UniProtKB/TrEMBL annotation:
Organism: Bizionia myxarmorum
Record family assignment: Belongs to the peptidase M16 family.
InterPro entries for the chain: Metalloenz_LuxS/M16 (IPR011249), MPP/UQCRC_Complex (IPR050361), Pept_M16_N (IPR011765), Peptidase_M16_C (IPR007863)
Xref: Pfam families: Peptidase_M16 (PF00675), Peptidase_M16_C (PF05193)
Record GO terms (molecular function): metal ion binding
Domain Peptidase M16 C-terminal stretches: 205-383, 677-851
Protein name: Insulinase family protein
Recorded superkingdom: Bacteria
Sequence ranges assigned to domain Peptidase M16 N-terminal in this UniProt record: 48-171, 530-647
Amino acid sequence: MQSKRYALFALIGICMSCATKPQTNVPNSEKEFSIAYEKFTLDNGLEVILHQDNSDPIIAVATIMHVGSNREKPGKTGFAHFFEHMSFNDSENVPVGANRKMIPEWGGSRNGGTSNDYTVYYEVVPKDAFEKILWIDSDRFGYMINTVTTSALEREKQVVKNEKRQRVDNAAYGYTDEILRSNLYPEGHPYNWTVIGSLPDLQAATIDDVKEFYNEYYGAKNATLVIAGDIDFQETKELVQKWFGEIPSGPDVEALKPQPVTLAKTKSLYFEDNFAKLPELRMVFPSVEEYHKDSYALQILGQLLSGSKNSPLYQVVVEEQKLAPNIGAYQSNSELAGEFIFRVRANAETDLNAVKQAIDSGLSRFEENGVNERDLKRIKAELETNLYQGISTVLNKAFQLGQDNEFTGDPSYITKTAKLTNAVTAADVMRVYNQYIKNKNYVMTSVVPKGELAYAIKNATKAEVWIEEILQDVASEEVGQGEEADYEKTVSKYDRSEPPFSELPKFKMPIVWTANLENGMQVYGIENTEIPLVQFDITIPGGQLLDPENKTGVSNMLSNLMLEGTATKTPAELEEAIGLLGASINMYSSNEDFHITGSCLAKNFDETIALIKEIILEPRWDETEFTRLMQGLETSLKDREANPNAIASLAYNQLLYGKNHPFAIPGSGTLETVKNIKVADLKSYYSNLVPQNANFHLAGAMTKSETLKALSTLNTWKGEAPKLPKFNLPAENNKNTIYFIDVPESKQSVLNIGKLALSSKNAEANNLDFANEIIGGGSSGLLFQTLRIEKGYTYGAYSGVGNSLEISPFTVRSSVRANATLKSLEIIKEMVSNYGNNFSEEDVELTKNKLLKANTRAYESLGAKLSILRNISKYGYSNDYIEQNQDELIAMTLADYKNIINRYLQESDMIYVIVGDKATQWEEVKELGKPVVELDIFGNKM
């Protein structure tokens, strides 16, 4: 997995009180925010940071290796990312494949990420698996290199190839990053290539290359280890010494100095994209590296240019000239250099020359008007809330502490970041604009749909990218686990065998309080005072179910329009009012509900609710905004046609629910269903937004009495709830059939396989969820372990059951290498067909342990606590339903599992939807022995 560095900011009045030892907050007029930590260094040079958070019985472990793609050499690109993959495979004292399989089975989550500048490995586990995770982490870090085999090397090459095909080759605008990097940075510059690198370079990698990379960069001196969560400091120090203290220090890794670039001239390039449906323009200016003093002003500059309705680029490009639904301008920081980026995905059939001229016009307006001080104040208020949200989990705190330590030597560098951000003035913003943007050279890309060169920037040069040719012969890329390496184990003074579990932490439901408002709305709350934030959600039954016939998308459009001002506030004024509170307010319509959601600092909850009331009761019905939003919707719907996963999902849902059911169509609608929507349709739907049968959910730093006092203002909101319509499901006449959708030149085939199963109100819903874990529950599931780990056909394969009052489907999803389509289908068919028969007593025990332990970390965040409340209100679950579910899980027998699998997961009842290259795969998939029907990208039979 690739990742970007977290960037967090603090505001005046908020103190990051981080020191070498935990400290008590000093009373102040503003409640000070602090992250207490302890830092120490092992004899081998490994820097270790500990943070204690006893709020949940979980522990996060993050290892930041100071090596990313910027340490690679031309001809050996993509190696840092490839090595991240290799590190998860095997090590001297941990069984083959244990990392991906065992951690989820312990109830944990795990992953890794590679950026330009670093590689991070991270896990969150229940407290009882803490020493086990130190065993796995330390073994991967210090004891994996002897286990690398040629077979493992070749298999992981296929996995990384599949990742690139999924993220780059089979994705609209996937090649743009490669075009920009190769033209912005000169040959030999560490950022001249993408993090995922070149597939020919990857294919040429040898075991000697792997060992050389490990020996050079994976020493203890080149890393930071962070442990955050429910820990005891002294005990943890002893365990860290035991498991990590013998890892070799490694050679000194010379620090890289910043390497900012300048361009002698502006470069303009175009590319015809096989998947894109819309023209896209990007302009990238060389800027400054992370932690440079100017980076803070540049980040604010981006928000001022495009981050609000008052911003000049939004006004010109979106509102006045109506060229695109939105525009982004932002600073992107890396260790050695930075980029300031303008990005516009324009409306269909829009000339990018006009977009470029509009950007120039918007920048001229900015130069003329300068910085609005209220906008500057608003941005800083928003950043205050973002600070708390960014460190609301133990894992995010581990990331922040570790990355600041590794790149600055100071885990508490965020304190300096806060001061530097708060010190930015309007004059600073204008200075960096003049220094890095105005009249400076840049790289510009025009990416247009294939065959639509007329929309590209005039006189642009054709961009050159390397495009893989997929061989039809799957055997040519067949891989397997192969033999384990023959080596002599590294001697250790400790027993490095798997440690036992400690005492199992018992998950307990948070206390849920309930109340009723006078207007009939029920209120559900969970008080949580870890951070001074609240998140809330108003759920109104109906959603897409109440859309007018043949006008799917009305409720979705209403959710957008209602945030475009109120009767007394223009869209810009409403946005500013929300922003000055540091709050966020959103609306969206789902299949069965209409949602009004938000978050804010607890101290601003009353004012935020007052804005919610104004939005609900005093809609603006702005025709100009409606027209703009409709045009933006049409653009996004056109863009959706470029996404193979979206194409597969549309067809799959139509086949499951029938075209007359609301669930057959995405909630945002289609180009056909939205074309006749008028403001009058929205006004008609608006009458459904009433408090009767609605539910208010809140999680965060508010007591019940404080919440109800603030919500009392909503009692003037009244109305009688509509009766929800019922829809019939189709006869099962689509089952046991393959539906194929052609997307020419696809490097992968997207697979959606499944059938309607049950409603979340069904008494057996939990049991089916439990039964899915072994086959499709994450990286330890049979699908993932077989299709990715054993075969190298895919980057991921999963299955699961949806949640709704309506009957939801069980679905298997994956994107597989094009020439492995048939092989993958055969494996899935056999696996699902025999799943019930093969389910064992061992699987029963594994499912129980995995899910019981996963609950300890599943509900840490405020968002997760909100989901508890929504489940209680929507499905009628008890206030301790998770504990009841645990009891149900413990009581399930092997016969129970077999019964539930055989009742709901019959393979012969399933439909198969495949989106891929017909030229190479049509005849192949026929060999599965099922009828094959061709559909177009809208799900219609050809």
